[in-house]
Amino acid sequence: MDIRPLSDDYAVSPQIAPTDVAAIAEAGYTTVVCNRPDGEIPTELHANAIRAAAEAAGLKFVLNPVVGGAISIDNVTVQADAMMNSTGPVLAYCASGNRSSIVWALALAGKRPTDDLIAIPARHGYGLEPFRATINQLAQA
């Protein structure tokens, strides 16, 4: 498991397994957000398997599957709600952490400078520059 913090209260990770959840809880995360559609992964990694492990560990679980190249405003809204309503730090995961960083940046549009929303994920290898215009547009909404 490779947790990559984007802020004090939000981190992203490539795909996790049910066996990773105990370490996630021990690390202080209180909410796990799945940004990966089940159709991309084997059954043992489907959201319901992660949900069961997360809830057994006392964590909140949020399902918000993000399809690459088709991120919706609903994805952004669900991610923002998960972040806002968490009682502690959030760990979001997808295939690499990229989609989880994109929806984080879009959810924070207008709340943090666009340059930061692009530069912070870049430290972990995530290229959000193509989303600059969308971040700026959401910041104006």
Automatic annotation (TrEMBL):
InterPro entries: BLH_phosphatase-like, Prot-tyrosine_phosphatase-like. Residues 2-110 form the Beta-lactamase hydrolase-like protein phosphatase-like domain. SUPFAM superfamilies: (Phosphotyrosine protein) phosphatases II. GO terms for molecular function: hydrolase activity. Gene3D superfamilies: Protein tyrosine phosphatase superfamily. It comes from the Bacteria. This is Uncharacterized protein (TIGR01244 family). The lineage of its organism: Bacteria, Pseudomonadati, Pseudomonadota, Alphaproteobacteria, Rhodobacterales.
